[in-house]
Each structure stands twice: as structure tokens, then as C-alpha cells.
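Lab notebook, page 48
Experiment: co-folding of the full assembly
Goal: obtain a model of how the components sit together before planning crosslinking
Operator: M.T.
Materials (sequences as entered):
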Amino acid sequence: MLKAERLQKIVEQIAKDNKVILDDLSLLLNVSTDTVRRDIKELSDKGLLKAVRGGAIMGSQVHPHFKERQHIDTQQKKVIAQKVLEFIKSGQVILANAGTTTTAVMEALPKDITLTVITNSFPIISVLEDYPNVNVFFIGGQLNKHSFSTTGYETIEAIRNFRADICLLGICSIDLKVGLTDFDYQESLVDRAMIETSKYIIALSTYDKVGTSDPYYVCAANGIDVLITEKDPSVADLVGFKDAGILIK
Amino acid sequence: MLKAERLQKIVEQIAKDNKVILDDLSLLLNVSTDTVRRDIKELSDKGLLKAVRGGAIMGSQVHPHFKERQHIDTQQKKVIAQKVLEFIKSGQVILANAGTTTTAVMEALPKDITLTVITNSFPIISVLEDYPNVNVFFIGGQLNKHSFSTTGYETIEAIRNFRADICLLGICSIDLKVGLTDFDYQESLVDRAMIETSKYIIALSTYDKVGTSDPYYVCAANGIDVLITEKDPSVADLVGFKDAGILIK
DNA sequence: TTTCATTTTGCAATATTATGCAATATATTT
DNA sequence: AAATATATTGCATAATATTGCAAAATGAAA
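Observation: model returned without errors.
Model output:
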């Protein structure tokens, strides 16, 4: 049986019974429990179900579409998320922009952490739902159906009413000379506003975005305090940022 | 049975009966009371219920979580949604509050309709994503994890910046003498603000909420223009509203 | 085809988690 | 205070998860 078939059957089962059990699937699909476990993990990463000990159950029915687009570069983003955690302390006020990387960071937070998170990202909201001690403030505005976030005048104005300890900035492009840039004008404005109102800027970028640029300027490279990628800080392309006074992780 | 299933069932029970008893659960779920106790502790840590001697009761919020409410009375809500459609014309500006009924209305909209929708409800956003001609404005504010909506000062202020043609108001309780009331103070304030800034108020209520009341006042019964339930307008309990000048559908 | 790289899969060793039991402690009722 | 019910703790066992690894399968390029 093809792997794709297996995944399909698992999804079908879940739709039918609201749950699947590891051993049952192993028997039904004629593969080891290890494989089933890996399959479930994969589907879980795509947000199609929720992996639990011993099997899987239906994930959140409320916003399934938010999660479906997050399955790109999952591994790198998880590495970045782990690196971010050392900067986040209980009780802080965190401003987070919209993006799959910032969402991955939220997913990596310990379930009992106490924080205030301010964001304009709907996927982040759906993650933080399950964090009882995280106080969430959502920034309103015009819905952007591509980024699943709000933008526009009201969004910018609302951001200016906050002072955050940390700004978590998932970014489109970063280049030592050009600085941070975005391919969406409205989002670049949001990023700017977030940077201006935060004490400490942590930029999150997968390594392939380093050295690239987009049409809309956000800020100079040294406008950020930390740059986090999934690679080791000693990688050649990153040392330039270090020399510019940016902490590389 | 999976542990995750057990936890779900406990939460369901609590939502239904407002309480659970250790021994009952132990029997129902086929696990020792020790395990049930540990499950309850876990859920209690997440804030989903309050552990007490001998079992558990509902936490601070009296009403069940949106995820659970979403699946009750679905049929009635669909009937209501269909009735609402005749009031909604292309090009209008609609203000919608948070609730499973208003969400059901959005789901019933024709996919190609042109509208502007202003809301503080996250589930409505996730529905309207798929409507290419619906311009959506989200009202920011403090996240309320039970209703999946925003409330608070900023929310109220933002609402006041709009003028809507129609206000779709999913309601908690309505009584001819007491008027509209809500069980959540913050949401009652949002409802008030929405009513004040809209030209035409359509209240949506399943029939079982007619004649009931909650602690927080929203507006007088005749403060609304239309009342829509799943029942026929000729039903005895509804004619009183008709006499008060409210259109019943 | 053959070769090489990548992905998939199963296995084994190890770590983690879940569960029931029993001993002890604490609360509640009589 | 005594009796009863419920909680807490530590522990042993079983179930499940994770990790690294090697064999097999698959796919792409020569």
C-alpha cells in the first residue's frame, strides 16, 4: 500500500470515529506501529489531526484552514522556536507579527507559561487558546486573507498604544546592506510599527531568506537586536551580522 | 480508550451537568479513581474545570467552551440562518457579535455575496476567509478564550468608529419585560455598543432562550427591530413581542 | 539499464508516561 | 473522638515514545 493511501485512510478513520488507535492502524494498514506513529506525526504537523499518546483525535474544529498552510519548513521552524525560548521570560509582554515562524514559536512555548502576547495574527490566536496563563491581546483591522492577519490604519494605530518587552518578528528577507524588507506593503508598515514600540527586537528567519531582499523597506539590519536562524551562528553568511552588533543565534 | 478521549469526555460531562463525580467517571471510563483524579488535576491545571473533593465542578465561566457549544442545536441554528438571509442585501455593512448562531448565519451566506462584515468573533473570521467578495474588518481587543472573541475598552471604542446597516446579534436571553441580557459582562457591553452604532438590529435566538434572563442588561426588548427564532412567528410566547412592535420571523 | 541520493520503513535500545496499588495523611461526618 | 470517605505519595509495572541506525524501497540522473 502506498504511503499516501495510508495517510488518507488515517484521515478517513479520524473523520468517522473522531479518533484512531495506534495498534488498530498498524494492523489495518500492515505496517509497524513506528510507521503509523510517523504518519500521525506528519498529519499532525499539517494540522489535520491531533496526535495524542496511543493514537490521535480530531484537532480543533474551529480553524482548520489556518493550520493547513503551516507545513512548510516545519523542522527548521521548530529549531528556531527552540532557540527563541531562552529569550522569553515569564511575565513579559511580547509583540508578535504574523507568520508561520512566529506561530511555530508560540507552539513551542511551555503550556503553563505566564505572558502577555499582542498580535495581529489569527493562527497565533488559535495556538494561544490553549494557554491558560497567557493573556492575549488581538490587534484589530482589515482582514488580510493571505497572511491571516490584520493590517491597515487601525492596526498601526493600535500597535502604537503598546510598549512591549520583546518583538518577535518573523521576516521575509534580510540583507546586511539592504536591511529587513517585506513583499507586502501593508505588512511592512505593521512590522515597522511593532519595531518602534518594542524594547528588544528578535528577528526570526530561515537561513534561505538571509541575503535576500523584497520591495518594501522595514528597517536597517542593525535595527534588530537578535537574529535567529536554524543554522549555527558560525556559518559564513551570518558573521557579517555579528560584526554589525547583532546577536546571532 | 485513549487518555485524550477520557479527558474530552470529562470536559463534556462537566459542560452538560456542571459537575462530575469521581466514582461515576471511574465506572464510566473504566479506570481507577486514582487515574480519574489525576485527569481532573490535569484539566484543572489547564483551567477547564475546578477540582473539588469527590469530583469537579465548572470553573469560573458558567458557560461551556465554544468548541462544545458549536455542536448543539445545530439544526435550529441552520433554520435561523436561513430566515436571516432575506434581510441581507449585497453591499451592506454588517456588524456581527460573537456566538454560534451568528457564525451559523455566516456559514449560510451565498459564496459570491458582496458585503462588509465587522466582527469581534474569531470563528466568523475563519468562515469568511472563503468569501472572496466579503470585506472583513476585525475588531481588536482582549481575547476571551471562552467565546473566541475580543472584548474590553479597545473593542468598544473600535465599534464606535463604525456605522453599520445591520447588526446581527446572537443573544443569550431575551424577555419581553427584562429585555436582552447576557451572562458575560464584557460581552454585554460589546452588544450595547454594537446596537448603538447600527441602524437595524436583528436579534437571533433559539426558542429556548425566549423568556429567560441573565445578570447583565443589554437593552430593552423594543430596542431591537427583528427577532428571529427557529419556531413559527405565531407561537404563543412570541406574539407579545409582535405587539411591542418587534418583527418576528 | 545502472548509479547515486533520498525517503521510507522496521528494529532495538533507551527514555518517558500512564496506571493501579498500597501505605499514609487529611478532611468530613457522625 | 471515632468512623468513613477522600487525597497524597511513592513505587512497580506496563504501555507508549524517542532516537539512532541499517536495510529496503523509491526516484532522479547518467
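Interpretation: Residues 22, 33-34, 37, 53-54 of chain A lie near DNA strand D (CB under 10 Å from a C1').
Next step: discuss with group before ordering constructs.
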